[in-house]
Fold this sequence. Notes:
single chain, alpha+beta, 8 helices, 8 strands, 36% helix, 13% strand
Amino acid sequence: xxxxxxxxxxxxxxxxxxxxxxxxxxxxxxxxxxxxxxxxxxxxxxxxxxxxxxxxxxxxxxxxxxxxxxxxxxxxxxxxxxxxxxxxxxxxxxxxxxxxxxxxxxxxxxxxxxxxxxxxxxxxxxxxxxxxxxxxxxxxxxxxxxxxxxxxxxxxxxxxxxxxxxxxxxxxxxxxxxxxxxxxxxxxxxxxxxxxxxxxxxxxxxxxxxxxxxxxxxxxxxxxxxxxxxxxxxxxxxxxxxxxxxxxxxxxxxxxxxxxxxxxxxxxxx
Length: 270
């Protein structure tokens, strides 16, 4: 038996790479970088979970990972392109397709919320643990107070039923993050950079809450008016380059994150 290789899993290993528009290629590189960063920050669950990004244009296509690749293997050209009804527009793989649960979750949000460019869903231990707590996410830290609204969606089983899409969207509302009860975390953003920042901060908030709760000491709960004021202060990234030059979350740190990725393995760009 020949050793396993990703090259052998391609439908036509010798084929010339397809021609993507400049806008789609830029998005592919960003989403591939997002997958690598999720891996580097320890937010993966082997080949499971998914991040997607809406392709610019009128066709309602989005990019998502091939179900079977580890996040550390994702590259710009390896991402699937599907339409809102789940039909594959581009898939270079012999045996890898879209994760059905990924389709149900991501197509629902992309269809209902055109302002959302990127969606990220994770099954981290800290996220799953908080999703199982009756109290949910508590505004215990400045990082957690970043989110003025945290949405919740009750567990209904593996997300394979299209009828659940309406309830998922209704529960998400206009929130940037949602805790899927007994399941995991979900974040959306108007850009890949923003969605990654949201899932990173949500994950950190869950992690620190569990650390605090496990210490066995009474928790210090900030007053509601302090939580509201902090959220207002953090509604735009406060650490801008100069006073008044506020930028959306994700913008400032993204170039540095890409430099980090490039120093480790720049193959995500291919």
